UniProtKB/TrEMBL annotation:
Belongs to the universal ribosomal protein uL16 family. The lineage of its organism: Archaea, Thermoproteota, environmental samples. This is Ribosomal protein L16/L10E. It comes from uncultured korarchaeote. It holds the Pfam family Ribosomal_L16. It comes from the Archaea. One of its GO terms (cellular component) is ribonucleoprotein complex. The keyword Ribosomal protein applies. GO terms for biological process: translation.
Length: 166
């Protein structure tokens, strides 16, 4: 089945995380939560903060991470440090409905409508941090541009905040 649109999973409902009830748990798409130079003495940090409660799927977080990494390739890994704070614990379910000719004979309507596991999402409240990007003053324009490009992979309810560390 193709990937369903994110608007189907955007609203925050009750979390569904009990793994002992689920036969096949879909894996998280996120490969790394921290990358760059962890030991640097950085000048500032950019934080990506939510402005409304929503669910963020793991493939959107991974797309953001890859977009950020692709834009930061021209900088050395010693010049920045990125932390992904959003962890996808919530398991998304999908009640697949048949469509097309004679579909009414195949499906059972709302009988057994609980749904099968389809993916994972992070449930974020207002003010939650999605990611933090630290860097030096000399590289600020490159990092700011990388955040602008990568943030296009995220929903529009985010705010980018800059804080000085020194």
């Amino acid at each position: 089945m193709p990937l369903r649109e994110a608007r189907c999973y955007r609203r925050v409902k009750r979390p569904y995380t009990r793994k002992e009830y689920i036969k096949s748990i879909p894996p998280s798409k996120i490969r790394k939560y921290e990358f760059g130079n962890k030991k640097g003495e950085y000048d500032y940090v950019y934080r990506i903060i939510t402005e409304a409660p929503f669910q963020l799927r793991s493939n959107a977080i991974e797309a953001f991470r890859l977009g950020l990494l692709g834009q930061l390739r021209n900088l050395s890994k010693e010049n920045y440090f990125v932390i992904i704070h959003a962890h996808p614990h919530h398991i998304l379910r999908r009640h697949a409905m048949a469509s097309g000719h004679k579909a009414e004979r195949l499906q059972k309507g709302m009988r057994l409508a609980f749904g099968k596991p389809d993916g994972r999402a992070a449930q974020l409240d207002k003010g939650s941090r999605i990611a933090s990007i630290m860097g030096y003053s000399r590289d600020e324009e490159a990092i700011k541009n990388a955040i602008r490009v990568a943030a296009s992979k995220l929903p529009p309810y985010i705010r980018i905040v800059r804080e000085n560390l020194k």
